[in-house]
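Take just one protein record:
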Amino acid sequence: MELRRSFIAGSIAVIILAASPLAVVQTIKKDAARKSGYAPVNGLKLYYEVHGTGEPLILLHGGVGATEMFDEIMPLLSQSRQVIAVDLQAHGRTADINRPLSYEAMADDVAALIQYLKFDKADVMGYSVGGEVALRTAIQHPDVVRKLVLVSTTFSRDGWYPEIVSGMTQMGGGSAEPMKQTPMFQLYARVAPRPDDWAVLLTKLGEMFRKDYDWSKDVPAIKAPTLLVLGDADAVRTAHAVQFFELLGGGKKDGGWDGSGISNARLAILPGLTHYTIFSSPALVSTVTPFLDAPIPRAK
């Protein structure tokens, strides 16, 4: 029992989003009415589904998640735009391939999807693991990213609180059996093309999480207007978010009475939200929507 508790506690600390039981129920209802497809990119059959119409927004889930994690906010998010929600490699309905999980490779997949869907550019929004992938997409493929929204995202591994990093090191195949009691596995078992790959997914995530990363030298080169969003009780350190904002060009000086000192970066810290509640909060949508709707600032 103690082993089971430690694995589950560790997995939560490993940036695994807690998919609610409601999401599992909603999956059953959504299956019949979904507009979806599979994009053949980089050896994957990358699953995506489309909600709404208008300017495209690529939406990326967190670790061990799937498109279902956004079900509670999707009606609001897709009111004025075309949201393309994606299941990343080995997650949800996207089957794994013989390739390690890495933020860089998944970023290549996202860029290839944008091109496959014949968009010149798209807004890209990611949460947690999906945020790291969105960040790498903007770094590796700047020409396809119009605006960037990073929710509960870091630019380096030490951006997470120490207990979160500690939890990352515990992730692996040994977590698979204990975590079969969680809503995350229930969702995976329902939608995954190969449910027996559950242990493979956790093993590959663990390998990715144990690798150090620091993209601080790449962040200042990002030209796309970028919004950072996190909760004031997030797994991401608030000080790290401020440092991230400054690397993007924000927080350098007073914005000025006419707004001339405002950078292309935005920072939003939402009160009373944690890493495990922010992705389903209406407050996230009300923060993101005005940013996406605003005209692209002219180059200074």
About this structure: DSSP finds ten helices and eight strands in the chain. The longest strand covers residues 265-274.
